[in-house]
């Protein structure tokens, strides 16, 4: 149904547009005054925010950080208990060693708490810009359905400008959030293929996450063990990219594609190392086994 703006004064529409603009500008000033992020320096800004993906990553990141916090809090409680017992026994050397460990864990806990608060602050700012952007979109749509006047055209121009500014702010915040995602340490555990893997077979595994690449070659030995020319690689998590894994079999000068799969990294944000098994072929006759430590 068409929407009429006869009850919405020109002054009110301009006030709303200016309010949106001021909120966006304030955010941009506070964000751009901080350090420049790598993704911005390289000109790799993605001017297409993905709020749903950012929400998933934020929830997984916060859950993983809280797991780390709980683990270190449990360690602190254990050390504090031993500290009290040792104090009663007057074993000074051991007592001071425990005291040093406790202080170290306490410092790490404070860092984790600051990290969590920073991530929450960034996501809150992101949600504000997202709502402002949605509001500008809805207002643009409403004005486009109303009779065209000079005031409505001016408001449309202002709203389009606000929309662009909010989009830019969201992308900047996404870049800032990526700085807090940590690292993924991937370890090659080998291929699993039962009858498909034979002594002498050679394979190449190619793992990619955005611009980050890892290419390694391996061979099946006579005792069914596997040797790989590289066993570990560090990847920097990315908000928008998934892991792409490609496995090929090397036969002399020829290569035979075994399979290509993609793997989401959302489940990798955990405090404990994870064993990941990926089906490379559709029937799962060849699998790739990795260990991921965040």
From TrEMBL:
Domain FAM65 N-terminal, which positions? 1-294
Name the Pfam families on file.
PL48
State the signal peptide span.
none
UniProt lists the family membership as follows:
Belongs to the RIPOR family.
Task: Name the PANTHER family for this protein.
Answer: PROTEIN KINASE PKN/PRK1, EFFECTOR (PTHR15829), RIPOR FAMILY MEMBER 3 (PTHR15829:SF15)
Identify this protein by name: RIPR3 protein
Gene, per the UniProt record: Ripor3
